[in-house]
Structures are given as C-alpha cells and as structure tokens.
Amino acid sequence: MTTMKTIPMFAAAVALPLVLAQGCGDDGMQSSDTADTSDTAGGEEECDSQISGVIDTDTVWTCGHILDGVVTVKNNARLTIEPGVTIRGLNGSALVVTKGSQLIAEGTKDAPIVFTSALAEGKRGRGDWGGIVLLGDARNNLQTGAGVAEGLDAGNPDYQYGGGDDASSCGSLKWVRVEFVGFELTKDNELNGVTFYSCGSGTQVDYLQVHMGKDDGVEMFGGTVNGKHLVITGAQDDSIDSDQGYTGSLQHVVIVQDPAAGNYAFELSNQADNLDAEPRTAPKFVNVTAIGTSVSEALDTQSAGVRLKEGVSAEFHNAIFAHFYGPAVELTEGATETVAAGGGVKFMHSLFFNNSTIDDGATPWVVGEGSTYDLAGLIEDAGNGNHFDVDPQLGSYDFAAPNVAPTDASPVRGAGQAPSGFDAADYIGAIANGAGDWTLDWTSYKVN
Amino acid sequence: MFLRTCKSPALLTLVAAVGAGVCARSVRAAGPRDYEGPTGFDNDGTVIEQPAAGQPPADAEQPPEEQPVEQPAEAPEPPPAEEEEGGCAEDDGFCVEDLTNDAEALKKEMAPKRQIKVAGDAGTIKGRVLDASSGSPLIGVGVAVVGTDYKTRTDINGEYELSVPPGTYQVRISYDAYEGMTISGVAVAKDQAQALDRELKPIAGMTQTVVVKAEINKESAAGKLVERKKAASARDVMSRDDIRKSGGGSASSVARRIVGTTVVGDRFIFVRGLGHRYGNTLLDGARLPSPDPNLRTVPLDIIPSGALSAINVQKTATPDVPADFAGASVQLETRETPEKLLFQIDAKVGANTATTFRQANTGDRFAGDNLTFGNLGRDLPSSFDTARPIRPSELADVQTGQPLYSPAQLERFGESLPSLHTAIGRKTAMPNFGAGLQVGNTWKPWGTRLGFLTALQYNNVHQTLREQHRIYSVVGNDEDGYTLEPQPAVRYEGFKTTQNVQASALLLVKWNFDKHHRLELTGVYSRDADNEARTLKGQARNTCSLEIAECLNTRLRYIMRSVAFTRLGGRHEFPGAGGLTLDWFGSFAQARQDDPLLRESLFADNGVGYRVVTNESGKFQFFKLVDNTGSGALNLTLPFKQWRGIDSRFKVGGWAETRRRGFDVRTLDLEVRNYGGLPPGGTGNIFNKDTVGGDIPMMAGGTEPFVINEIVRPDGQDGYKGTQSVYAGYAMLDLPFTRWFRLVGGARFEAHDLTVAPYSPYAPNADPAYRAALRDRLVLPSGSFIFSPRSDMNIRLAGAETVARPEMRELSKFLFVDFAGGFGVQGNPDLKSTRVWNADLRWEWFPGANEVLAASVFYKYFDSPIERVIATSPRLQTFRNAVMAQNVGVELEARKNLSFIHPQARDFSLGVNFAYIYSRVQIPPPTPGDPLNALTSQTRPLEGQSPYVVNAYFAYDSEKSGTNVRLLYNTFGRRIVFVGANHLPDVYEKPIHTLDFALSQRVYKGLNLNFIVNNMLNWRQTYVLGPEDALFYQTRKGTSFILGLSYSM
C-alpha cells in the first residue's frame, strides 16, 4: 500500500528539522552568577593597575593607571589626578564622573595630565577608548531638566544629568590632553573626547587638548561651564558641539581638522525636540582659529565651519574660519532664523578664507532648504568688522605639526576686538603671535 | 446488540453537534459488528459499545398529553427513504462518518433545508426537539416521515420544519445516544403547520458505557457556534470551514471576522484593540513561543492552516487557561486525523501591485535563500575568535601596549566577513508562489485506531514598500503652546523589498487505544525568513552630515525565525470512577531567531557624488536568539449531577512551564583607522578585499582604509539571558443551578519567576551590570454566570483577574537602533507585571444555524500597564509602567443568513461586528529631574489602543455549484503607536480600510480553484502626529492577487 511507504518519509521530513533544531540549540549560554572581582580605586595605590567599576570615595592618582570598562566616579567622590600622570584607556573604557562628583585633573605646562590609548605609540587610533564624561548639576533646557548621558545605561540614575545649580562644578581640567577617544556606543553615537553634561560655571577648564576623537572633540549639553585655551585636533565629527541650553563661553580655541576627516568645527543646537526650549543654547566663542580640511587640496569631506540649528543663539568674536570644504556657516530651521533676526546670532571681527572649496567658494553661507533667510546679509554686514577672502597667513597648517600662530605679516593682528568680560585681545584668532603661542609644549599632534 | 455512539449524558448539551457533524446514528443493529469500515468511532475516535445487549428499549417516555400513539424507535419499522449521500444510512445500524474533510457533506448534514420538495399542496410539520434532562436544544436530530422521502434535521436551536403533502403520517425522531420515538397519527392539513415538539431522553445506563467524546464536531462552523454557545467563557471561534471558505488562505485574514479583532501585519490577532502584550497563544493547550523576541503573540501562519481545526479566541479568562492575557488567549486546535486516506495538494501563484514585475531592492544572494536557510551562509565563519572581540586595539600585553592581532590577522578577519558586499542592487520582482501538501490516514491495528496527518507548506513572497519617514521637532513655549517645526529633523524616503520565504512541516499522530484512552503526538517545525534590502534617501539633521548633502542609508538584513514544537498528550477516561476524565500533555518548544550579517551603511552626497560616511557605515551585526520552553499540564474533570440531577462538572489541574532564553549580538565594524586618505567614493561595493586591510597606516605604506573593529557596548547592552517559570494550579466548577442558570467559576494560582541578566560571550561569568527579577504569586479568581432565558440565548456575566507580564526583551538593556538617526529601543529591568481586572457582560442569541446576534460591554482595569515611552535625551524609546489604565468597551455582532429576505437568498449571509473601546491611561506628570517622565499628553488612550474596530463580511455559499465567496472588510480607529515626550506630540496610526475578496470554486470532484484579492482598497498605512497630522511614517502595501488550485482525494 503506497501510503504506508509514504508515512516514514513524511515523518522523517518533519522529524529531521526537529532534530537539527534541537541539535544545534543552546549556544553555550552558560549562566553564572559569580562576579569577577575587580579593583576599584581605594586603599593603597598600585601604579599602572587596571581600574574598573565604581569609585565612590575621594581618590588621588599619583601615578599612571589603566581604565578598563566604564569607570564611574559617584557618591560625591572627588577623583584627583596629579600632574604628569598618564591614564591609559583600554578599548571600551571611559571615565564617567556623575552628578555631585568631581574630576580634578590639574597638570602643568611641563607636566600635563594625559588620557590616552592603552596601545603603544604608533599603534594608536581614534576610538581606542571612550573619553571623559562629566555629569553636572546646572540647568539645561530639557523638559524635566534632566537627561541621560548618551550611550550609557539610560535606566541608571547615576548617568542622569541636569539640575538647577548653574554655579556648580564638575571639577577642573587644566593642562590636560585627551587622545584617541570616541569608541562607538550605539549606532551614530560615539563618546566625545570630553563631554560636559550640564556642568556649572564652577567647573574649571584651561589648557585642554582633545586629539584624534572618533566623534566630537568637546561637547556641552546644557550648563554654564566656561573655558579657555582649548585645542581640538583631528576630530572625526564636530570639534565643538553644544546643545540643550549651554550658555557658557570659550576663549582661545584652536581647531585643526584632519585633512581626510572632520565635520563641523562648531555644531550648535538649541534642542533637537523643542527648538524654542529655554534656557536657549547661547554660547560665546571668542578668539577662535578653525582650520578645515581643504588646506592643500579640496578633498571630498564633510567638513564645514559653523552649523547653527534648532533655534540656537551664538556669538563669535575674533574667529578665523579657513579652508573648509563645505560652507563656512550654515543656519537652518525657522526657529534659528527667528533668533538670528532678533540679533541672537553674531559674527564679529572674524575672518573667512578659502571656504566652500567644494564649489570654489560659491556657497559659503547656507540656509535650510526652501528658506530665503539672508544669512549673507547677517554676516557680511559692514558693521560687524568681518573680513572675507583674506588669507590669515598663519604659520603652518600641517596636520601633524600645526602652527596656527599668525605670522608677522598676518592681517589678523590688531584686527580683533574682544567683548567685555573676556581677556583683552586685539587680534583675530586663538593666538596673538608666535611669542604668545600658548599651544606649545603641552600639546601633542601624533596621529598614531 | 452493539450500540455505537458518541455521546455521554455528562455532556448532554453538546451532543447535538455530534449528530450535526459526525452523523453517528444510534439505531438498532442487526448483530455484532466489527470495527471495519467507516464506523465504530465517533469523531474523536472512541469506540462506543453498549454491553447491555438487548436492553429493553421501552423506557422511552411517553408524554401523557400525546395524542398519537408513540412507539420506541427501536421497534422494527420500514427503513426510511434512501440515504442521499450513501455515507450514513439512517436506519441500517450504527455508523459514524467523519465529514470534516467534506464541506459539502457537512453542509448537507447541517442544513435542514435539504428536503425533498413537495409538488402541489403542502402542509408542514414543525417543532423543536430538546434534551429531556437539560432542556437544551438538540441539533441535527433526524426527523423523518416513515415510509416517505420526507425528512429533515433540527437546526442549531433544535428546531425543524418539514413540508409534506397533506395527510396523516407516522413521524420518527431519532438521535444517537437518545431514545428515539415514533409518533403515529400526525395529521397535516393543507397550508397548515402541525406542531410537534418533543423531548428526547438519553438512553438510560449509557453513563457507564458511552464516553464523553467529541463534544461537538469541532470543525464545522455550526459546531463552533455550539461550542461558543456552551463555552463557559466569552469566546469567539473560527472553524476550519471558515478557514477553508476564505480561499484556504491565511488564517489571519479569516480571523478578522472575530468580534473586535484586528489583524496586524497580516499575521497577528489583536483583540479589542489590545496589542501583543495582552495576548497569549496556545497550541492544543500548550504554550507556543513566538519566534519574534519582541512579541508575545505568535504569527498565525507558522502553522499550516490545513492542519488546524479551529482558532479559538478566548476573551474572558477561565481558571484552566494560563492567565497571562487580557485581550485574548488565541488557542489553536489541531484537526482530527482523517478517517480515510487523505491526499491533498495545492499550489498558488500571486502578484502584488506594489511589487511584482516592478523594480525591487536586492542584496547579494546566499545559498539557501529560497529555502529559509540563507542564515547559514551569512553566519560568522568558524575561524572567528569567540573568546574575545576582534579589534585592532585588543591588547596582548597591557603594560607594553602591544596589540593582540597582527595586521595580517586583522586583514584576514576583515576580509573573511561572510560578505563584504554592502551594495544594494535592483532587480525585477518575480511573482509570488506557494504550495502545500497534506497526507493523512487512519489504521486500525489491534482494534485501536491510529491516525496521522502530515502537512507541508511553502511560500515565497516578495513585498516592496515605498516608505517615508519623518521625525519632527516642535517650537513654542508653555504660554503660547507648541507647534511643529515645519522642517522635519529626519526626512527619509525609501524602498524596502522583503522576500519572505516560509516553510513549515507538521505531523499529527492521534492514537485511540480504546474508547477510554487516547494519545496524541504533535510535531511542528516552521521556518520563516525575511530577506530585506532597504534604501532610505534624504536628510537626518543630526546624522547626515552637511545641510547641503543628500544621504543614502542602506541596510541588508536576513532574519530567520524558527519554531520547533513537540507535544505529547493524552486523554483518559475512567468510567468506573464516575466518568472522571484525565487529560495531560508535555511539550517542548524551541524558538530561534537568527539575524546574521545585518549590514548598514550611510553615504552622503555633497553634490559631487556619494561617499561613505565612515562612522555610520560598514557595520555587520550578528544577532542570535534561542528560546527553549517546556510546558506540561494535567487536568482532571469529574462530571457529577447536582441536586436537581443536572449535569455538572468539577475540574482541577496543574500547569508547569519553564523557559530559558539566550540572546546576543556581535557588532563588527569596518572602520577607517590610521588612514589619512579619503575612503572610496560611490555606493557600490566599497567594502572589498582592496579596501579592507590590517590597520597599516598610510604613512607606513598602507593602502587599505578599512580595518575590522568589533564594537562591544557597556552595561550589558549587547545581549541577555533570561529564565522564566510558571507553576500554576486551578480548580473550577461548572455548576448549573437550574436549566437556565449556570455558574462557572474558580481560581487559578500562578507562581511566576522571571529573571533577566546581561550576557556577553566574552565575559560569561562577569558580574551582571543589572539584574531584573520579577516574582509574583497570584491567586487569580475568575467566574461567570450564564443565564439562558431561552435555549438559544445566553446572558453571561464574567469577571476575572489576569496578568500581563513584560517580555524578557523589555527587561533587558539590549539596545537596538532601527536606522542611524532614528530611535533606539532599550528595555527597562525595573518593569513590573501588570495586573488586570476584567469584567464582561454579554448577551447572545443564536437564532438559527450559523447565525448569531450578540452584544457585550466590558471593562478592564490595568494596574501599572507597560507602555513604550520616549526618553527626552538621548533619543531613545524604553518601557515604563504607567500608573493605571481603564478600558470600557461595547461589542456588537450579527451574523445572519439572508434567507429571511427571500428563500432564494439562503446561500447568502452577512456578518458585521463592531467594538468601541474608550481607553484612558494615567501617567505621572512630567517630573523635574526625571528624564523618563516627560510625556507630553497626560490624557490619552493606552498605547496601541484603537477606539473602535469594525469587521464585516458578506458570504455566498452554494453547495450546488461548489462556490464559496467572501468579501471581508476591516477597519480600526486611530491608535497611538509612539507616546510623545518632551513636548513632542503622540504619534498615531491612522485608520486603514481593508477589503479582501476570496473565491473558492469547485471545478471538478476534489479539484478546487481559489482566487483571492487582498487589500483591494490599497489604503495607505500612515503614522501622523500633531494637530495637523504631520507625516511620521507612510507606506502602501499594494493589492495582492492570489490564484490557487487544490486537489484532494
């Protein structure tokens, strides 16, 4: 009887995949509840030890350490790092200082504090480790005044930021270098070199370099932190990014993009969800030298000068924007136009040179699709004291050894005017002259 | 004398359908018969034997008011008219015929209308036949005029009507397991109706000898209505008839006819607008896991529909069903094995107006793509390190900073990724096709009955969707209100082509040892693979680089989902123990989701052509999920008679279920590292052997920009493992107080434990970054009162407490981002279970066979319902318990045969159902300092809850021509798909109107032609937000045409 013969065949057809399915089951999902015990700092300091987990008491590092995983300073603890100390980060590591805790990293010009890759020199690269995340208690413009640090555990209250104390402090970064940072946390979400989440004006930032970041160099989410003497080199994304109601100011900022990589020198947003959120992001940048990717040739990069978006307000004084492949300034969204029309966007005593090389300088100013906003009028207004198509004549644009101090013949000398409240500066750009080059000695431009 | 039947007085009320569908006649047999031939078994295969041979049949009650002389049916009398179908002679002894595979015959069995027409003058005999002990109507009771061809059957209300020429007749009423009666001297006058109501008594003494079996013919539509009518809970049932008549197509399209049901994505049943979270799925009572880790509900198409006898949608809880549902428990029932050799084969071809013969996206092909085995070739090669992440910065020696992998090793790993090819091509989509095969038979070794059915199914379908994505921001402030910024932050338009290949195999073995004992073995293996190629073009403000750029996001993905399910069950009856019935099962199921080689890239065009955006490109992700579920249950049913002698039941049982799940992801990135030049241009095959290198810097002679780098995310975001166990016990009582009032109630105790912890293959023993532990011990009472003011009418009042538990994925911190610039989704280990209190009041009336009129109101209170919410910053969706929610709803249903308009219209029927649900959720107001409590609207329906659901169908069924036509309509009200936060409005899905058509036509004996048109209106699926309904997402599926042939012998 034919059916009788058919049966085992069908039975096999059904059974075989079942067997296969079971056979290749259980991919070794072992369960174990044993935690591996890892050092947290505390007690005797052992030099070059690996640090992981939580630091919840005041701690001083007098010698080098290796960060393993996300190291979280919490419980109002203060982590102090002594001058000359080098902290190396393993892949996937980051230093997170939670709200109320502080990072005190005060080096000296001769003995800067260096946060770098754990790899040997010559092997290093962007994204080798995470970076420094400072979570503060100042205001931002999120609806509930609080957010969670990107890429970290959104459900962990330790990683929340924002409060009401605009004078609070996340600590102090002086004579500090942060290199080869920015490992990817989630899709389109890498850690920045140093991220200031709602850090208050009590935070000290002076002489800070972020070099070879895979994402942004320095980013501010809300807060009022002020800084001086920043060097952002080789950031693959934006060099300086601010968002969510940041209202601080930075003076003396050097930005040099990698000729093959780099997005905006400044990406400034009010808030992604609510473009009118208050307090409005309104940073001031005084004495900026921002060098794009198109120094020697117009490589097809995503490099551009300033992006003003999502309702942001911003002021630039004494700024040089040179050699950007894309536009020098983009201003998008109606809310931003409204702010700009009301005087919320200023470019004063600034110099624009060799930008928009993509189309030989045809579109240095870009507004949103379909917009008729007169951005050119805003920037080119004669009353601003801005300079266009004038070579600033800086020392050297070599990415491996930049020298952005103006030469003696440079037109930037004497052309600047710092607003009140800032260090007096009669020059355009971050550096007055070769003699006054504050970037020397403590910085490093090694690309690997 | 042998009496074979299929009825127990214990379930008298259900006997009707046995007669209706199984044609089991209990009449005098000439002598002992063996078990040969289509006989000897009832629908569930139980042999019924009446050992008290020669028992006097004379205890038939003779109502004193009866004028005509009555005789017991067993008295010898002339055989009635010739049997029409030949399968079941009325009076030549006992026979059983399984009509479940023969829709026509079944229809004939059911239809009281198939009568011999009376030429000339006529009168009628009409009446109603009830069960003498319960008062329930008996369905399918034979009513025949002795010595003539005039005969009929009672309908679902126990009513019959028989046209005869005027005269005086002897009428015989017979029904298996009941004492038949013959009424003499029934006088019928011209144009007059002679009433003849009777009550039949169950045959005395049958309690010991007849099994409780085949409570009804489960496969017939009318039988399903009986089941629903008798069910202790409010449930809606679709039968195999329904499934078949809708063109043999997907069960889910038929499911739309169930009251308050929406079918989502053609695969999932949502009831009363409650989504995945509030349903569970059982196959023959055992837990069927969902192959999709994000969902609790199971797509209906993983089981070949030919293997199902019914889909029950139980809306109110009873203690004997797992309590983790609030919308509906979807219970799939496998069919009976065929009585005689069944061989059925079918094939179909289809086309979709949005897809077929149009340009479709395509990625590179792998072996087995058309057989759902394309995941194997996409898997990581075995040469890949599994002990540690592969990245250039992985250190061999921390102190010296020496890397672990040499450039040559890195290059080899990078180049041995299953395919470097990330480019998306175009091709012309071919027509869809599918085929199925069913074989079944039954043998009778050693006096037992052993039946099997195997079903194989294969489908290959392409679908191209043209999609638009927008993400908006708002402007404004608290004083002036908030409006949408007209320029969206994300504006992508694109194409997504998905080739879905589905293959499933099923084996059913049902073995009846004797009339009391039966074993069932079920094996199901289903594989389903989506091969997706997606391109999105446009701008994403914070991802896509310069404002002037146009971006192109490409993604290639292949998801294989499989479910292997095995179940062994049995049913045993102990007549010596008062009819105690024991049924049990043990089941093991494994669900796997293998999602290897997800490749995503982003390109930007500044006006000089596309170039890769390296940070967002060259990502290769490998997801793997294995979920093992074991469940077992044991139920004891004890029938007894209450104080008035009405049949009652007591049921107790236990349930145990354990589950283990592991999920992990590996993300390999080809990134630019130490390369000072530009990455390659264009969107072609940019990742290849010439561009993937070993991290040799350009200045050291390196020419290859990309190097492999594995991304390992902190805080346990890359995987999880979970365990779950449920141990439950219950007791319930089905207790009629009177014939018209019945109480069914009891309580279920569930002890539930669920743990989820992160899992990383690289640190399997690490201290978990988090640990979710849910533990509940719940006593869940449920009960219903059933009033039957008439035998064809019920009023039910039901209340139950149930529970909705979070899925493991929702408790894990695994993070997934749909597209760069879109929302990430991450779970929340602090979620707790939702307790739900349900109340239902339902009125239902069954005016005729396959007809129903029902209305119900319901109320649900959710304590801490789980919702998907949006965190303010970063852009992330996660899950949270709201405070509470309440749903109040009304449901109306009508199914009507159109014969009341005109007798000729009896082949037409119409059904409409409507559900209105008012839903409000209470959430905490925006809380300063809490980034997750910034939800925009404080007054709104529960996420996913439609305010109304409408289904309608129009059917034409002609047995004569073998034609079944269905027109099905469905729509639902606006429902929230994403809850808005940070002043962003909620995102709603707009109503979609769906109209489907199905035609099934018998071409020749056993040969059927099916023609289906789905989604005839081709309504756009649209998500909108804000007062102006700004577009959030839109697509259009196109209209599908399917032409199929099936042949069965």
Automatic annotation (TrEMBL), chain B:
Composition skew (Acidic residues), residue ranges: 80-94
Compositional bias annotation for Low complexity: 49-61
Keyword Membrane attached: yes
InterPro entries, sorted: Beta-barrel_TonB, Beta-barrel_TonB_sf, CarboxyPept-like_regulatory, Plug_dom, Plug_dom_sf
Ranges of residues in domain TonB-dependent receptor-like beta-barrel: 563-1015
Keyword annotations from UniProtKB, A to Z: Cell outer membrane, Membrane, Receptor, Signal, TonB box
Subcellular location: Cell outer membrane
Signal sequence segment: 1-29
Main location class: membrane
Record-annotated TonB-dependent receptor plug domain positions: 229-317
Residue segments, region Disordered: 30-94
Pfam family, one: TonB_dep_Rec_b-barrel
Family indicated by similarity: Belongs to the TonB-dependent receptor family.
UniProt xrefs under PANTHER family: PLUG DOMAIN-CONTAINING PROTEIN (PTHR40980), TONB-DEPENDENT RECEPTOR (PTHR40980:SF5)
Protein name per its UniProtKB record: TonB-dependent receptor
Species, as recorded: Nannocystis pusilla
Lineage: Bacteria, Pseudomonadati, Myxococcota, Polyangia, Nannocystales
